[in-house]
Design a protein that fits this description.
Shape: elongated
Largest sheet: 10 strands, mixed
Number of strands: 24
Strand content: 35-45%
Helix content: under 10%
Number of helices: 3
Number of domains: 3
Order of helices and strands: EEEEHHHEEEEEEEEEEEEEEEEEEEE
Structural class: mainly beta
Length: 413
Amino acid sequence: MVLGEKAPLANVGIELRHPGKDACKATHKNPDTVYSGGDGIYRFSACPENRPFILRTLPPAVSDWAMGIDVYDMLCIQRHIHSITPLENPYAILAADVNDNQSVTTTDVAELNKILLGNDDAVSRNTPWQVFPQKYVFKDKFGLSDRIPDTLMTPGDADFVSIKKGDVDGSAHRSFATVEKRSVTTFSWYTPAVKAGEVVTFPVIYSGYQPIEAYQCGLRFDTRLLMWVGVSQGDLEGMSETFFGLKRLLQGEIRTTWLTDLTETEPGLKPDTKLFFLSFKVLQDIPENALLLWFDDNIIRNVAFDASNNEQRISYTPAMVPAPITSTLVRANCTLDNDMGDVRFQIDSQEALSVRIALFSAFGQMLWMQTAPLEKGSQNIVSPVLADKPSGIYLWKVWYPGLVMQEGRLVKI
């Protein structure tokens, strides 16, 4: 019993059935069932000699959908869809057809993303494994339209092949005990000193040296110090709620993934990109740049992949203190009256001009925009736009001549 074209696979059930009434002499069972060992070999004891029998595979004892899956599999499928690096191995093609609809599409990528984020129930009720005779000859070049049998008649070749759905690169058998030998890339964040009862919001920044095309992270926070408020958009326009797994927030766990858009002229994540912002209510006073968040491989492996398929371990490094806004033409700030829902823009302008001010949802859906003529000096602009909106995080932005922009986040409690 092997996994794809690679390693032996243990704990796969093999059922032996005799067409007649003969039973295995050792167990007196017909059918009889055994499981493959660590070497992938299965054995039946004292079967009747020179008699035909039927072997049928059972689903492997390991049924974890997440086994062997990471963002690299998603990247491989995406490259196949865009004909950048087509999958030519029928085993890889079958593994890429996650939802068993006989095609490989972006839906399969989305299903894998849900699995990585902890939504194992997101996949339709098909088994995560497919097992078939090793000597089976595919009629379809890629095997997608074949009705592949799970039984074979012996005497003859009695070897089987197993495919783990979603595991395009066949890593389900691989050990990750030597992760420290991989190259390292870094993510950063900075947190100011905050008093108990206040809300702290900070960006998670990609601070590595080279572009990457995919990452997956498991982040942990101390629930004794922080209470979750929400996540919001950073510099990545395509980032949305679908890239976060938040089912275990009460345990202080956050999962997140990202995959580059291969249709872009220069795909990949550039250094110093703000990936997203996290917001927490602080339960105890915390000092400046306290370690409020850390990577935890027990949640999900923290890895990134570049365009050359190199796997990199993700590590934390402290971010620099954010530089103050240096523009002297326009300075803007925005506050929220949580009781009334009023948003107040405070804008200082060095000359008379017009600006645009706007409010967005946490991931960039525009809720309100206004062009505001400014006089020289300080002025306030008030809008009740959030009065009927639910609790959550909202983005504010101000544009002025030269398309320079100031922005921030509001938290409605």
